[in-house]
Amino acid sequence: MKAPKFLDPAKAGELYKLDYEALQAEAEQYARDNSIRKSATDKKKVNLTIIDNQITFCNPKWGELYVGGRSGNAAVEDSARIASFICKNLGDITSISLTLDTHTEMQIFHALFWVNDKGEHPNGKFCPFIELADVKSGKWKPNPAVAVAVGNKNYVDLQRYVEHYCSQLEKDGKYKLTIWPYHGMLGGVGYAIVPLVEEAVRFHSFARCARIDFQLKGGSPLTENYSVFRPEVLTDHNGNAVGHRNAVFIKQLLENDMVIFAGQAKSHCVAWSIRDLLTEIKAVDPALAKKVCLLEDCTSPVVVKDVQGNTIVDFTDAADAEFESFRKAGMKIVKSTVPLANW
Questions:
Q1: Would you state the pLDDT for residue 152?
Q2: Each residue of 281-297: pLDDT tens digit?
């Protein structure tokens, strides 16, 4: 089966406008020429969940938090492989879910939220950590100007909350609070899906009459939300909810015969999503882990470098260790070049 005309992996790092009407016509003709049935007729239900394959993470020029990995070109190459994988397995993928990291300015992991005694903000460009000791010592404090904006909290209460938050991250074995560059900004260019991946996903939708499932995450101002299934911290110091489990999506995925994961970043949003799904699986039936497949060549870890090219943060080893733990739990680690029918 020939690749669709639109598919050009060399476009993975480019921004361009999609012609949806032309894509629909090509997809429907492609389905007729290759006898590709509608997804509703699938006996084996296969879901592809693509985590945060947005410009903000996947474009070296336009991405605010580009996932270059150690090679510097990782996310671009991942996007090309994801688009190719969709096209090669068009008739076997029943549904596609796209998660979208969705942020605004005043969130606990952005620089505006924090100040020191001089009124300076942390430099989010270089992803500094804020630890419990930093909060207790007053090295970093919540910005008084954002207290009302993040939920009508008085300043003293917000100070108590951030101490609770950092403490909870440590207690749960989570990553330290990281001040990230502004990224995934709702309404911004970086928020959009990489055009080549969007093109492949919509081609699938047109060809198979399959609804695209969009899952938004990360909107709470008071917690990080790497995982699509739940935020890092669920309750504040008074026991009030600051976020919720995505129970509907968890149930939806586990109703499939196979769930495939790809996207960015392997060390954060991908790893934490899979870890949380594994926790849910273990609570129901550990054997369900065999349903989950991870496209190891379609995801890359966060590696942050300074302007001189020196590595500041490298999550590669941590990401690889997480994936090995998923393999041991029964999940399949596969390459996108292997036809889905052969898994």
A1: 64
A2: 999 999 999 999 999 99
Question: Going by C-beta distance under 8 Å and a sequence separation of 6 or more, which residues neighbour residue 88?
Answer: 3, 339, 340
By three-state DSSP, how is residue 48 classified? strand
Distance, in Å, from the CA atom of 222 to the CA atom of 245, rounded to the nearest integer, reads: 15
| Cβ contact 285:41 at 8 Å | no
* Residue 202 to residue 300: CA distance in whole angstroms: 24
Q: For 218-248, what is each residue's pLDDT tens digit? A: 999 999 999 999 999 999 999 999 989 999 9
Provide the residue ranges of all domains of the chain, joining segments of one domain with +. 9-103+187-342, 111-178
How far apart CA 92 and CA 203 sit, in angstroms, is 14
Phi–psi pair at 251, nearest 5 degrees: -60, -45
Query: Strand, helix or coil at 318?
Result: helix
Question: DSSP letters of 237-296?
Answer: TTS-BS----HHHHHHHHTSSEEEEEES-IIIIIHHHHHHHHHHHHHH-GGGGGGEEEET
For residue 263, the model assigns a pLDDT of 98
Question: What's the topology of domain 9-103+187-342?
Answer: Rossmann fold (3.40.50)
The pLDDT tens digits of the residues spanning 125-162 come to: 887 899 999 999 999 999 998 888 887 668 999 999 99
Closest among 181, 179, 180, 176 to 131, alpha carbons compared = 176
Nearest partner of 265 among 303, 221, 307, 312, judged by Cα: 303
CA distances from 62 to 15, 115, 189, 191, 240 (A): 9, 27, 8, 10, 37
Return the number of other C-beta atoms located less than 10 Å from residue 327's C-beta: 14
Residue in 82, 310, 101 with CA at minimum distance from that of residue 225: 101
Strand partners, 260: 48, 293
* Positive or negative: CA dihedral 279, 282, 288, 289: positive
**Secondary structure percentages of the chain, helix, strand, coil, to 5:** 40, 15, 45
